[in-house]
Amino acid sequence: MITSICKNSLKSNNNPYLSLSSLFKQSCSINQSVNYSSKTIPIILVQDIDKVGQKGEEIEVKKGYARNFFFMKGLAVHATHENRKKYEEFSQKIDYTTRRLEKENLKAIKKITKDNRLIIMRTSLPDGSPSVNIDVDNIVYSLKRRKNVVIDPKTINLPAPIDNFGTHPISIQFGAREVPLIIQFETL
């Protein structure tokens, strides 16, 4: 439906090209009914899809991806009130906290295994020994600063603080997986 404001703007212009452009003024109700700001839409998965989600999970994807991939293959439906009720029993079975932790762990593992060396530098005393020993907290801080990885200090397997310069292999426990890390302790 064209509102009276839009009809009046059509009548006032004699040029047919200008009259079409007047339909898309902000005052027309046609423009106001479409939400142009949102580039993603919520969808509900109908099947389990690897690396995307589980059946019944509501996710946000880009409109074109939803329209051309998920809806065309029948992998998802629009996230309407009726569809949410229909897939509610499946969504209640999903353990979101475990999945979030698994995703964070996978990202951390990728960042650590990409370059499994961590260089930590400290000043040395006149006799050549380090001025400060390296403990678990120093390793956690260095991982955050250098690799942008946040881990729990309890997951680092370090039997004793590192008290001499050189390379020291340690491991980090991510659930059932153990990731090796080489600490390269150098002098400034």
Index terms:
ribonucleoprotein, 188 residues, elongated, 7 strands, 8 helices, 3 domains, three-stranded antiparallel β-sheet, disordered N terminus, 40% helix, Ribosomal Protein L9, domain 1, Ribosomal Protein L9, domain 2, four-stranded mixed β-sheet, 22% strand, alpha+beta
List the helices and strands and how they pair.
Blueprint (H helix, E strand, L loop, with lengths): L3 H9 L3 H7 L6 H5 L6 E6 L12 E5 H11 L2 E3 L2 H6 L1 H6 L2 H19 L2 E6 L13 H12 L8 E2 L8 E9 L2 E11 L1
Parallel strand pairs: 4-7
Antiparallel strand pairs: 1-2, 1-3, 5-6, 6-7
Helix pairs in contact: 1-2
Helical content (DSSP H or I, runs of 4+)? 25-40%
Secondary-structure-based class equals alpha+beta
Total DSSP helices? 8
Count of all domains: 3
CATH class of the largest domain: Alpha Beta
Give the N-terminus to C-terminus distance in angstroms.
74 Å
CATH architecture of the largest domain: Roll
Point out poorly predicted stretches: 1-13, 15-34
Number of strands: 7
Q: Mean pLDDT score, rounded?
A: 83
* Element string (H = helix, E = strand): HHHEEHEHHHEHEEE
